[in-house]
Design a protein that fits this description.
With about 500 residues, the protein is an alpha+beta fold. It contains 19 helices and 15 strands.
Amino acid sequence: MSEKIQTLLRELEARHGIEILYACESGSRAWGFASPDSDYDIRFLYRRPMEEAFTISEGSDTIEIAIENDLDPGGWDIRKALGLLQKSNGALIEWLHSPIVYHANPAFLTDLRKLATDHLSRKGLANHYRGLAGQFYRNKLTVESPSAKGYLYCLRALLAARFVLEHGTPPPVPFVELIPTAPDEVAEAIRELVAWKADASENESPGRQVTLDDFIEENLPGIGATLDAQPNDSNPRGPFNQVLHRWSLWPKAANATSWQPIYKSEFTLDRVRQPDLLLFEAVSGSRAFGTHHDRSDFDLRGIFVAPSSFLGGLENIDQVSDEKSDEVYYEVGRFVSLLLSNNPNIVELLFTPDSCIRHRHPAFDLLKPEDFLSKLCRQTFGNYAMSQIRKARGLNKKIVNPQPEARHPLRHFCHILSGQGSVRLDDWLAAEGIDENHLGLVSAPHATNTYAVFIDKTKPAEMRGIFSKKDDAAIVCSSVEKEAKPIAWLTCNLDAFKAHCKA
């Protein structure tokens, strides 16, 4: 079987034009409790040539092959893998520490294992295992005849979550090293089940295991409570980007004395206007059309080239703009993809009058209109024209029927259900003589923006009122006793409020 797997890996490299940097066994065989009919779960990490990895087309970052002859291969591109490793992805961390390795670039494996250990998110990894344990418990162990596989998968995830929370390190992959962390009686029951499964089929049931059931049902809720108390943690991108750059296929510039990656936060308007990035810049809009007047906006459009140190990182960028989008600069990959879709605002940049062009790199001449224009223009330009007509009609309505300048508060859109109709909230409060600070709301299940209204004049401090004290555009809810009965029902037309705010 080892020879078959090595042959398979070589075939995958040739078929997909990739280089496999690491391949291992995952799942029950790596954990040490495989059945005689278990598949070989082969997982691998790979890199692609630059011309295939970085194109304007959205390529796949995953290779999945149908199971054949008990071989179940699947792999991730290193960019995807490092993005997941930054989040302490549990499956990937297990791959990196698998006891069964089919192929490995030693330096690559060392780099990724170091990242996994030095930048471990204890809460993220433990939560991964807690989620798996809960999933296997609900789907596999609440049935009449649970399988040994269901028990072992759930127990391994549960013990792994406990291990991460206690030690702050990835759990051992072989299950035999996790079993001793359970109480003696439970550990012995697990060992007996592992031995039984070794001679059983993949989904055969050993019958209900009371000792294991009790252990799972007692410990699974406690893991959740412990996790909720853990602080949120996140990893910096820098170390992961550096490893990605090191293992990407394009070479470092021959004349570079130092090489520092650039990050998304560094792409400001001032930065993309620098000569090393700027490809094109021009005045656009009404001033380019010749339809401007003294109060017209001054629109700028540009195209910039993100350096290879960014393209090889874990971040993407489409454009950089100011708050009003009067100045918009497109990354060249995004610009070309919009050209291919015959976007009217983008296509017109290829026909910008010379008098409006501020900067034009010779490379911009490679983008020729005839390479992009197609019959699709009839649809895209037609739709754009219709959208402008609808916009003009809407503006005309605002001019003829101006809206009040002052925004109505959210309470004007709240009503109390009464009989076959409703009354405005303020009218109801006045008629009933109720202080809204004595009220508390509870959201009604399965009824969007509808609330049960409760009152407690004796303990008003326990009621939060109807609207937030910090934001009158937000409704607040209170905690009430289960036996409390509502005095009314409130409904809020939130969609009408949002439309009013946009008017």
